[in-house]
Automatic annotation (TrEMBL):
Gene source species: Streptomyces violaceorubidus
Keyword match Nucleus: no
Keywords, alphabetical: Ligase
UniProt-listed Gene3D superfamilies: DNA primase, PRIM domain (3.90.920.10)
NCBIfam families, sorted: ligD_pol
GO molecular function, one term: DNA ligase (ATP) activity
Protein name, entry field: Non-homologous end-joining DNA ligase
The keyword Acyltransferase appears for this protein: no
Length: 293
């Protein structure tokens, strides 16, 4: 039986703490749980009130990976859930609202993925997101070039953008929006992706077609669809090493000349938080959220 730990008055089973999840880094499950416990203060606001999809990898990134969208069997009754709309009918999903819920979910060994809307108002998107995905030999360096163009283009519409590494090989741009459905935000994002391709034809592609992507950055606007989710800020990814989807400054984006500059592992996050705080915190300021033109 897994040992029980009390977290904010809740009994949480934390199991197999010595299990090595990332052999290339010697990073254990216990270290993963410690990471989530110590970054909860900045991670939880990005999860709270958002239905969470879990990309689980209980045997590490080299084992089986599978998405869990519905409430998993065995979920404690104190974990908050919400009914959410689906094309095939309503379903229930987990809301990670507090430290106890976070540690319970982290014990499943999962990436955290969230929608661009909250459970109390699924009809209105409050986030706009671009997922910049480089096709080799392009890297995150080229993603940074595209991100800078998108930042300026969004600013022309009065929209303030923020950015983070994907935790894989690309970059995410995020902005706070209001007053629009996910469909409307998707249409706007697609229009900007098409515009970016016209402005930077040797660098950008807006279509997912694999044959078009080598050496270019795919500007994935489709993550704004109501049914889709994106890796949450500060989630650890199921990669060869425990890389984290980490907020970065625009100065860092402008100065990126090597892909290695934008690889942040779990132990790197605490020093960055001491230096910068949560660079995505402005997303929680409603007054900064912008109506689409």
């Amino acid at each position: 039986m897994a040992p029980m730990t009390e977290v904010e008055g809740r009994r949480v089973a934390l199991s197999n703490l010595d299990k090595v999840l990332y052999p290339a880094a010697g990073f254990t499950k216990g270290e993963l749980l410690h990471y989530y416990a110590t970054t909860a203060g900045v991670l939880l606001p990005h999860l709270r009130d958002r239905p969470v999809s879990f990309l689980r990898y209980p045997d590490g990134p080299d084992g089986q990976l599978f998405f869990t969208k519905n409430v998993p069997p065995g979920t404690p009754d104190w974990v908050t859930t919400a009914q959410v709309p689906r094309s095939q009918g309503p379903a229930r999903m987990v809301l990670v609202q507090d430290l106890a819920s976070l540690m319970w979910a982290a014990n499943l060994v999962t990436e955290f993925h969230t929608h661009q809307w909250t459970a109390d108002d699924p009809g209105e998107a409050d986030r706009l997101v671009f997922d910049l995905d480089p096709g080799p030999p392009a890297t995150v360096v080229q993603c940074c070039e595209v991100a800078l163009w998108l930042r300026e283009r969004l600013a022309a519409d009065g929209i303030e953008a923020y950015t983070k590494t994907s935790g894989a090989k690309g970059l995410h741009l995020l902005a706070g929006v209001r007053g629009s459905s996910s469909e409307r935000v998707s249409d706007y994002a697609k229009a900007l992706a098409v515009e970016a391709e016209r402005a930077l034809p040797k660098l950008v592609v807006h279509r997912m077609t694999r044959s078009l992507r080598p050496g270019k950055v795919f500007v994935d606007w489709s993550q704004n669809a109501a049914r889709k989710t994106t890796a949450a800020p500060y989630t650890v990814r199921a990669r060869e090493v425990p890389a984290v989807s980490t907020p970065v400054t625009w100065d860092e984006v402008a100065g990126c000349s090597r892909a290695e500059q934008f690889v942040f592992l779990a132990p790197d996050v605490a020093p960055r938080l001491r230096d910068h705080g949560d660079l995505l915190a402005p997303l929680f300021e409603r007054r900064r959220a912008t109506a689409l033109p």
